[in-house]
Amino acid sequence: MAxxxxxxxxGRPEAPLCSVCIAHYQGPELIAACIDSVxxxxxxxxxxxxxxxxxxxxxxxxxxxxxxPQVELLASKENVGFCVSNKRMVAHARGKxxxxxxxxxALFSDALTTLAREAExxxxxxxxxxxxxxxxxxxxxxxxxLLDPFYNPVPNLDPERRDVAMVIxxxxxxxxxxxxxxxxxxxxxxxVGEDLYLCCAARLWALxxxxxxxxxxxxxxxxxxxxxxxxxxxxxxxYNRRIMSERNKTFTLYVMTPTALxxxxxxxxxLLLTVEGLALSVLRLNFSVASRIYFNVYRELFGNLNQLxxxxxxFQNNKNGLLRDYFGTSTVIPHKxxxxxxxxxxxxxxxAKS
Length: 354
Description:
The chain is an alpha/beta fold. Helices cover 41% and strands 18% of the residues. The chain has 2 domains: 215 residues, Spore Coat Polysaccharide Biosynthesis Protein SpsA, Chain A (Alpha-Beta Complex), CATH 3.90.550.10; 114 residues, no CATH class. Strands 1, 2, 3, 4, 5, 7, 12 and 13 form an 8-stranded mixed sheet that branches. Strands 6-14-8-9 form a 4-stranded mixed sheet. It has a two-stranded antiparallel ribbon with strand order 10-11. The chain is globular. The relative contact order is 0.12. This is Glycosyl transferase. Belongs to the glycosyltransferase 2 family.
């Protein structure tokens, strides 16, 4: 078994094939398992590991310096969020390819070899991911995701399907030049939904977004912001996750949807959000749910309309392919309706970790 070759503590490789970029915010035990999974890769090419610590309030920085001197550490003095953290790492990276890896994820031992092999065959170069497995149970979570009409991710479980609408940012492989061409993650997103935005941009420009059927990675789903995983037969989430998720899905819908459908979809989407917010507020006897999460979408959308119009113009002016190509990885039934039938009304935790 050939272990992954990383750069020595006192020097960086001039031309690593891959730069593994890990955005980190507190939890040394999380980042340790993640980095160890990279160091134990069975591959023949050179890899550099870059970690951006987002001003962790614990001993993460000291832990990384003491235990992983081979890792390139970017220690931020202030908390800047997931998007900025990743953009800083990619700007610092030297690899031909970038693997964005969550600090609460761990790769299978053949992951990098599998991704590199598939990337060399992908034409034109686009975005790749691996099957995602739950950290605790080991169950398959998804092989990338499809999207419903309102940009809600729908897990793809079909091993025969490679083309997907989006891949989860916990394990996202992309060529450095493609990242630069697409503009990377939008810094103004903060966190949540940045992977959706980037993958929709790629598909709008007729670049492939694919899930490789082999290998995989384990992931502690929803660890960073709470929710995103059924527990005891019920879905729960946090205010912060829902606020960012609903806002950023709406931003992506407006910016990326081809002209013929953007206005009908946006109007229906906003009406459904209003109904959902009011319904949850009544059921929970808590009207801050509607105000803080759902009505906030209106405030954010109109407050950022000039910036969103500018981004939309850039991406729509450079789009390729037909309307059916962009929506070729979409489902018809709204995913929230399917989840409601399966798990009932979701619980929104005010005090969930953020």
